[in-house]
Amino acid sequence: MSKSQFQRGQLHRIRLHVLPTQRFKTFSISLYAGLPLKEETVTPVALIPFVLRRGTAATPETIAFRERLDDLYGAGFGFDVYKRGHSQIIQFRMDVINDRFVSSTTPLLSASLKLLGEVLTDPATDEGNRLRAKYVEAEKVTLRKRMEAIVNDKIRYAAERCIEEMCHDEPFRLHALGQMDDIAGITAESLTAMYRQWLSQAAFDLYVVGDTTLEEVKQIVARAFRLDGGEPSPYTSTPVESTPGKVRTIIESMDVSQGKLNMGLRINTAYGDDDYPAALLYNGILGGYPHSKLFLNVREKASLAYYAASRLDGHKGICTIQSGIEIANYDKATDIIQKQLESMRSGHYSELEMSQTKAMIANHLRELKDSANEMISFDFNTVLSGRERSADELLQQVEAVTAEQIAAVARKVELDTIYFLRDGKEE
């Protein structure tokens, strides 16, 4: 079974994706809302879900809103704000138990989607139909704290700064939570205007996994979501940018005792490309797992790093390397990491590297089926990339990748940016 099991439909401006299954005792619901990443909108858009979770028109007080979740047998409700390619995406998540397992007189899937519809389209307001000012002001503080937490976590901060420098003239440089300097200027009025714009322009995808049908979900959504008609907004594919050829080196000083050496690579391969499975193997052998080249050669053999790993972003077509090093070891660590990149281009991978990496990726893809939310996240890649590829299909493609195909990906990889976070002392 290579194709996705999700049934597709649409209603109003929402694309519907329903996976009917009795495998789970719960209904897992995810609503994705995506807009292009833009400097002028990224911060207020990030603030929207923080304010929406505080209450709805029917239950405007936050405590009453939480009591409604308790009444749904402790349904889980949460959200994330992140970026995929050049899109800023808000994901609302709900998990509620299937009625068959409790003595509920209320159809719980219907009640959950009704609540989600209210959160999205009928929020708590003040006079003049304005988002509640006290919620806006309180959640501005929350958003600021989230951003400060990134600065305080130096591993995360260095990773974000590397991407910011690498993509300095692209929308991808923007953090999904926005920019600290923009928070103060947001008012209840300006956020209400942004919320209405977001509601009218965002791409909406609603996923439901559980013992239901596409038809049932469609009927509930028709009643629960107050959205205008029209066609769902498409995602535009993110261009895979190539570097001009000169490696940029950025050295930043902060109060740190351990250096953070990060590198940004343009891999010139994206999720929808035929060589994406080979790019997965490339990242896995380079630095994705404990048996990878970076871990073994930089951390274990040379003892140059406290941690050394790589991460692939398939929707942007980049790979980033993160390592924590003694500040004095910058030159040695940079040199040995670049030797690993050269080694990847040579096409010489041991049988063990190949088999272990394929096994790790295969385990991850097989484990997706044990989690409704993981299945949803994986399927959403289809919406973002325009390429339908089931987990089974990707698994078969990964198993078939040869050493030469990985080397072909490696030869397309370009080192773009070296970012080093160090202390302020002179060497």
TrEMBL record:
<dbReference type="Pfam" id="PF05193">
    <property type="entry name" value="Peptidase_M16_C"/>
</dbReference>
<dbReference type="InterPro" id="IPR011249">
    <property type="entry name" value="Metalloenz_LuxS/M16"/>
</dbReference>
<feature type="domain" description="Peptidase M16 C-terminal">
    <location>
        <begin position="186"/>
        <end position="359"/>
    </location>
</feature>
<dbReference type="InterPro" id="IPR050361">
    <property type="entry name" value="MPP/UQCRC_Complex"/>
</dbReference>
<dbReference type="InterPro" id="IPR007863">
    <property type="entry name" value="Peptidase_M16_C"/>
</dbReference>
<protein>
    <recommendedName>
        <fullName>Peptidase M16 C-terminal domain-containing protein</fullName>
    </recommendedName>
</protein>
